[in-house]
Amino acid sequence: MEWLIERFQSAPERIAFIHEDREVSYGGVVSSIDVFYQRVQAAVIQRGQTVVVLGDYSPEVFCMIMALCRNGSIVIPLTRSSVVEESVALAVSGCEWYVEFDAAGRDATITHRGLKSDNALLNEFRQRGTPGMVLFSSGSTGKPKGILHDFNQVTEKFRKQRNPVVAIPFLMIDHFGGINTILAITSSLGTVVTVADRSVPNICAAIEKYKVELLPATPSFLTLMMASNLQNQYDLSSLKRITYGTEVMPQSTLDRVRAQFPGVDLLQTYGLSEVGVLRSQSREDGSLWVRVGGEGFQTKVVDGVLWIKSQYAMVGYLNAPSEFDADGWFNTQDQVEVDGDYFRILGRVTDLINVAGQKVYPSEVESVILEMDNVQDVAVFGEKHAMLGNIVVAKVVVDTPETADSLKKRIRQECLAHLAPFKVPAKVILAEGPLHSTRQKKIRRA
């Protein structure tokens, strides 16, 4: 990874981070990496030892991770709102050292924990002598999985330098997409604009203030933005590109975003922690069809499910059997339709609702309901039913008070006009709180 630090050294005056109104140049980043590396050496953190780094995006957190990787450590990035409980994560990965940043993300305390993990994969990986990174799945479909990556291999994808941009890293630093975003920005000598509270007003304010050019977001966040109409209360004219991923985008939300940002490129991204983030190209017709792949990736579809083979794949799970087949192909569990070189992501196999043998994809129903008046957000999911196997349930947040009976009647009429009868929600729940997690991702459950 020395090539990446050398790239930072080539543009010492360029702004690398804007963190809480504080600008840090790439020259400052290189200096901070050196300072943290000296602290790592002074603490006698050895190559191959596991080190938890607790913090969110800040120049110093990034520089500490880089210093630890330069040291050959195995880094476990966590935030105070991580998708997995810290005790669960540490039981899987071990924690020989613990680096905790303060709330401002500037000062770090290094503590020796001595919690070793006699994990066969970790022990084997240490023989490589290369830096590692452990990220955790959310565990939404079961036990959280520890995903081990070779950090040198992760960064290699960014060796080819691209045009610099000013961007907000939307996904958090303990998420593969977050790591991918911050490496993509810094490897191109762009500017990372950090936003501690990823609410719609704060994101819009940061775009206006710092002339942000790239916004990588989730469909849930963009749905909230369109419902709030806040995009019209800020000057967002600096935006050149909006990317969206991690979950299926409702067509109705995409249509609204296109109408609101006619001069902005909209790009659907696709990636998984296990295989990395693929290069993508959205079709120009405003649909959800996307071409994915690029150098180092191969794709195929088997029985309607997308499989990926990647040069940037994980080393393996720390606490689960490998899900790669003998030829290195990974089953994404994503149902897709195919049109030539393009795919349309329908949803995860685990999100699929089976109604009397008929398939219902939640995003398809959500897209119709989001077009209705007085609907701010909706989450569609299945509920067990003795006769049908499952029924479709819609959990809805409304703009102004409305009875559940009235809303259910309107939803039924609207859905029957656009969908097959078995896709129409049999049950409607009025929700008071948000239907997304702190990571702006849809929560589909009662």
Automatic annotation (TrEMBL):
Domain of life of the native organism: Bacteria
GO MF annotation, one: medium-chain fatty acid-CoA ligase activity
Keyword Ligase tagged: yes
GO biological process: fatty acid metabolic process
Limits of the AMP-dependent synthetase/ligase domain: 8-280
UniProt xrefs under InterPro entries: AMP-bd_C, AMP-bd_C_sf, AMP-binding_CS, AMP-dep_synth/lig_dom, ANL_N_sf
CDD domains according to UniProt: AFD_class_I
UniProt keyword annotations, A-Z: Ligase
Ranges of residues in domain AMP-binding enzyme C-terminal: 364-442
Gene3D superfamilies, per the entry: 3.30.300.30, N-terminal domain of ligase-like (3.40.50.12780)
Similarity annotation: Belongs to the ATP-dependent AMP-binding enzyme family.
Protein name according to UniProt: Acyl-CoA synthetase (AMP-forming)/AMP-acid ligase II
